[in-house]
Amino acid sequence: MTPIETVRLRLTGNPDHDAPLIEQAGAVVRAGGLVAFPTETVYGLGADALNPNAVQRIFEAKERPSWDPLIVHVLDLEGMRRLVRELPPTVEVLAQRFMPGPLTLVLPKAECVPDIVTAGRPTVAVRIPAHPVAQALLRASGTPIAAPSANRFGRPSPTNAEHVMADLAGRIELVLDAGPTPVGVESTVLDLTTQPPTLLRPGGVPREEIERLIGRVRLLKETVPEGQPLPSPGTSPRHYAPSVPVLLCPPEPRAFYNMVLHTLNQYALIGAMTPNGWQLPESERVLPYEWGDWGDWQTLAKRLFEGIRWLEAQGVQAIVCPLPPAKGLALTLRDRLQRAAKPPTP
Ligand code: TXA
Ligand code: MG
Q1: Which residues form ligand 1's pocket by a CB distance below 6 Å?
Q2: Residue having the nearest C-alpha atom to atom 3 of ligand 1
Q3: How many CB atoms lie within 10 A of CB 19?
């Protein structure tokens, strides 16, 4: 891959300033280029979903294996309807409550969706992002946008433009920088081709809220070893991982303190994802990231990847983190942390 110059366009929120920059980004998408842009969840790496060559470049820039299909972003239900064979009635029920927003639906795909987008599957994942910049980019492009998270494959997702630059500078044309993303974890992926629907990836919309609306949702039981066919690629056991070990402990201040103390015996410098008010051993070799109030899952979600990436950039050799419980939005944090904590397969 020959390096290209990556242009970072800083948006201000003022339409007079931003509109021409977003037009420019739309033109890059139409021309088959790669544009990283904010969604409400994480930054996405976008390309024209109907242009197989453009989509191929996403896989190259991310070093993403070709078996891992992409989410296609659209503006509204009409846009969604064009990409699928049919929209079951459940979609409208879900849309009323959760769209635009961090919910991705897997549905039987229409002819027009290139195989490279879906990794050869008969289904396509679609979502309507809520971020105004994502919506403006979709309008300016005039085409559905395929976009995985804008990180190198397997790394923690990017929640600001610095994260995108750290992973992808020299590989993509443009980054639309609109500051940190509000949700901070990826969308919930729900497969509507099964009965009952299957939760493929917990995300920004908690499973319980979906079940309140449409009834029971099945959970995936087992994760599948890397490289083998997956019900959903997001189910890779190791993912969202920094370059250093992540060590999880039970979510009590005492257990956290002890785990940090114990870990100090093994590493020269360790990072700690530290809830407000939780004690750490007195040591210059412990670097805290002040994460937020334990139980305030929205704040903790927004700051999760930011904290992990920040500690990693400070040169810590391991990261200690309390493990959130398996319900509501906390389940999403738990899922990401458990994948980040899996040791690499040799
Ligand atoms: O919040 C998000 O979803 C972000 C923003 C940019 O929209 N995107 C994102 O994309 O997280 P990515 O590529 O990192 O994760 C895509 C996930 C896969 O892990 C998989 O679970 C699911 O989407 N997926 C995509 N196509 C699928 C398909 N046809 N069948 C099953 N799962 C699919
Ligand atoms: Mg991803």
Answers
A1: 39, 41-42, 44, 69-71, 102, 104, 106, 118, 121, 123-125, 147-149, 186-187, 189, 200-201, 232-234
A2: 187
A3: 13
C-alpha closest to that of 119 among 169, 64, 74, 162:
64
Query: Does residue 285 contact residue 269 with C-beta atoms inside 8 Å?
Result: yes
Question: Among the atoms of ligand 1, which is closest to the Cα of residue 127?
Answer: 7
Question: Can you give the pLDDT of all 346 residues of the chain as single tens digits?
Answer: 789 999 999 999 999 999 999 999 999 999 999 999 999 999 999 999 999 999 999 999 999 999 999 999 999 999 999 999 999 999 999 999 999 999 999 999 999 999 999 999 999 999 999 999 999 999 999 999 999 999 999 899 999 999 999 999 999 999 999 999 999 999 999 999 999 999 999 999 999 999 999 999 999 865 455 455 555 665 667 788 888 999 999 999 999 999 999 999 999 999 999 999 999 999 999 999 999 999 999 999 999 999 999 999 999 999 999 999 999 999 999 999 999 998 776 5
Length of the chain measured in residues: 346
C-beta atoms surrounding 189 within 10 Å = 23
Closest C-alpha to 30, from 50, 45, 44, 15? 50
**Separation between Cα atoms, residue 98 and residue 164, nearest integer Å:** 27
